[in-house]
Amino acid sequence: MTTTPTVGVLAVQGDVREHVAALERGGGRAVTVRRPAEVEAVDAMVLPGGESTTIDKLLRAFDLHQPIRDRIAAGMPVYGSCAGMILLADRLADGAAGQQTLGGMDVLVRRNAFGRQVDSFEEDLHIREVGGEPVRAVFIRAPWVEEVGESVEVLARVEHGPAAGRIVAARQRDLLVTAFHPEVTGDHRVHQLFVDIVRQSLRERS
Ligand SMILES: NC(=O)CC[C@H](N)C(=O)O
Fold first, then answer.
1. Does 133 show up as a binding residue in the annotation?
2. Which CATH number covers residue 97?
3. Does the annotation place 52 within a ligand binding site?
4. Would 1 be classed as within a structural domain?
């Protein structure tokens, strides 16, 4: 029997609807999460893009910071895109004053790393674990991963231009991050990869 995992999309700020749609197309059941009790009820979570400083403040205002941290520590699979990638980083460069992350992934992430001139751009990326054609990656004032710990697998790097070689997708066990926004392109393969990670994690825990 194949189970359909329930994935909660953090819905305090950011592009929530697009993630809900991409998760459903990728084989998951998507719900929105705004309350601590909802954090407890899901199998996994997506932290969407948006503004990481705002999301950080709202996580604390809505009493979601600690419950999500606790679930990450207990092994809940989480996919963080852009601002969500910043939130999953153990270490942050160029964060705003007082900005905190949830942490969980042994990486140093640099916020707004691509600089002003190239705030936003698109590139076709080859992503490990995502088969078929390259993925059209949309970067919007994106961060990059500057350093990775030993348990982190690099899934994709920028392939062209001045930032070539920079890490923009990575995985540490059941934590997945991308610096770009696959939810805005109509291609649900990254979300499908995440739903597969969640399914595998549920099988291992049952
Ligand atoms: N598209 C995004 O999520 C941008 C992230 C944003 N620059 C931040 O620091 O939070």
1. no
2. 3.40.50.880
3. yes
4. no
136 located within any domain: yes
Q: Which atom of ligand 1 is nearest to the CA of 55?
A: 10
In a domain, 180, yes or no: yes
**Which ligand 1 atom is at minimum distance from the Cα of 83?**
3
pTM given for the model: 0.97
Our mutation pick for probing the ligand 1 site, out of 9, 16, 19, 82, counting the most ligand atoms within 8 A of Cβ, is 82
Token pair in block for residue 83: 């601002």
| N- to C-terminal Cα separation, the chain | 13
Q: Catalytic amino acids? A: 82, 181, 183
Show contacts of 165-170: CB within 8 Å, 24+ apart: 166/113, 168/125, 168/137, 168/139, 168/142, 168/144, 169/125, 169/127, 170/105, 170/107, 170/145
Could you give the ipTM of this predicted complex?
Answer: 0.95
Beta strands in the chain (DSSP E): 6-10, 29-33, 44-47, 78-81, 89-93, 105-110, 120-125, 135-140, 144-148, 153-157, 167-172, 175-178
Number of compact structural domains in the chain:
1
For residue range 113-152, list pLDDT tens digits in order.
998 766 789 999 999 999 999 999 999 999 999 999 999 9
The reply to whether 142 falls in a domain is: yes
